[in-house]
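S2.1 Query sequence (Zinc-binding alcohol dehydrogenase family protein)
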Amino acid sequence: MRTVVCQEPGRLILEERTAPSCGPGEALLRIRRIGVCGTDIHAFGGNQPYFQYPRVLGHELAGEIVAVGERVDPALVGRNAYVIPYLHCGDCRACRQGRTNCCRQMQVIGVHRDGGMCDSLAVPIEQLVTSDTLPLDQLALVECQAIGAHAVRRSELAEGELAVVVGAGPIGMGVAQLARERGAKVVMVDTNPERLAFCRDRLSITHTLNPVMQDVAEALETLSDGELADAVFDATGNPAAMQHGFDLVGHAGRYVLVSIVKADIAFHDPDFHRKEMSLLSSRNAAREDFEEVCRLMEAGRLPASAMITHRTELADFPDCMPAWCAPGSGVIKAMIELDCSVLVSADSDHAPDHRQ
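Output structure tokens follow.
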């Protein structure tokens, strides 16, 4: 099967590997869609802290179940599914508390172990969620949106509160949409005017601020009668922006770091204590976050597909990635589509046609 491997920072190669088979308790997923995530971009750039090379990227995955192993219901064959890419141990303190998203022995498909930038992937059945209603594009975006759902749930955001999202990438856009579903007043902050316009025009995020053009803290004081934000979410992946975010949080507010960077983050301790600020990290997502995203997608309340601005086929991805990572590329969310006719021609003559 075809496989895209990140050999080292800045270098992707397409190679042939032996197709996997199902073990007991596993299903074989024919990959149909792969969302390109900030994690993939950071890994390609050498800036992902949990990454080792070489690695097959890809954890925003959707496809069709084409085979199952022992102890798996054969009726699942032929159904579309998305992948929950977080493999947890079930035994550590975090898992015992139900916080499997930050398992001490966490293994993320596409980060700690090889991922789904390939034609097929064997996945433990408990990591697959089938859907008879959502199209493949949306299924591939569930994981990205679940990150935002988890961050909002961590913040305990309440109706009527002022939520500030810094970083108008796909994760930040997800946070903003999920915060709005909680009834919060949402403000998006980014230095890219095109992304801010996209948030206003396509996602109906009416309040946007550009720190290049205006003083964000001053604007937030105007919006909040001088109180600043109840909750600030950083989704920039930029250490300087992450540090500046402390200044946007009001008294008794919360600061949620969704970004992960290879850096130390500092803050002014007297101001931090004066506000009695709560500082939270938000890692990955739990099953209930995935379920919330699916519920909102099925209800038509989460227009995640609008974020897809660029597409390519798997074989062309190594050539596309450098251009997509370049400043000014205009990429919001890139999607890899797998042409099943490639697989059909390589299979036996009686192979089914899975094209849509």
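The longest strand covers residues 26-36. Residues 342-356 have pLDDT under 50 and may be disordered.
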